[in-house]
Amino acid sequence: MSATPPEDAPLPHRLRLIAPPAGPQTGSRTYARALVAHLAPEGATVTEDLGLLAAPGAAVVHLLDAKSWVRSERPLPPPGGPALVVDLHDAYWLDARPYPAPDRLLRRRRWRRDRPRFLGLLLRADLVIVHARAMTAAVPHRRTAVVPIPVEAVSSREPRPVSTPPRVLFAGRDGARKGLAVLGAALRHLEAGGRRMDLRIAGGDFPHLRPWTRWWTRGLRRRFLGDLSPAALDVAYGEADLVAAPSYTEAFGLVIQEALLRGVPVVASAVEGPEEILSEAPGGLTVPSGDPKGLAAGIASILEDYPEWTRRARAAGDTLRATRSPERTLTALTRAYARAQRERNA
Length: 346
Known about the structure:
The protein is α/β, with parallel strands linked by helices and about 350 residues long. The chain is built from 11 helices and 12 strands. The model is unreliable at about 1-5 (pLDDT under 50).
């Protein structure tokens, strides 16, 4: 990226990015990859070593994914040292909101174990970066900056008629939290009314949930795509007629942004990030979380007026290109780093 940082907030001369370790493609890894590509040419050093979180030699350390530290055995960085900026991608450690899950007892135990470390890290940070305004209230000390996740360099596909049967794409890891059971019930409801559907599921789920993904989608025409490379995921979006994102909680909703950039309409839960994206770029519908009939009605509404919704999705993609460009992300980041240094020196 060739954008120049604004004069009032230059990039720190000694900026260290701590990226999440390699693993299955997730929203936080997509974001980290984009920031590394943008900031490394500007002089930022990049590492996956969490031990460098508090090590000297940097003016600002930016932890690109908080959960990579929370799940480690590392102690909190001591006071002093470089200014610490932490990226918040997940809402579920901040909110005890329950949702159906076959492993709910295990989730609750892990939540009770990990939440104190998560909150301790946020309190220790000089600044917490969030990607939706709705998340600012969830951060204990409210020292937050809203930074847009930069859009990809992709184009909207050409308008086309809806497929027969319509292709619905679900993309994401952790089908329990992301509402795959709700989607399965919604599609069965549509099929009971005579509307056959074709479900595509992208993203390999946790091993212990894989039998459940089959149970949640039983009786449906479905295809499990597994973990996809960025290029393969682009193909999956291109083949989809709409994207369903029925999450119970979602701090941002990268799948929604990725779909709209390609001109694919979306039906999503009215929670945190998704509601904010679709309010700014209305290329889809929001429905109550955990409501299969409401989700089915939203899917049917888009399919019944498909040319208009594809037009809206393409317009929404143009809006996101204007409001979430890499240049805007870099501007927001440089200002965030300057603020973190001010907080540290206050």
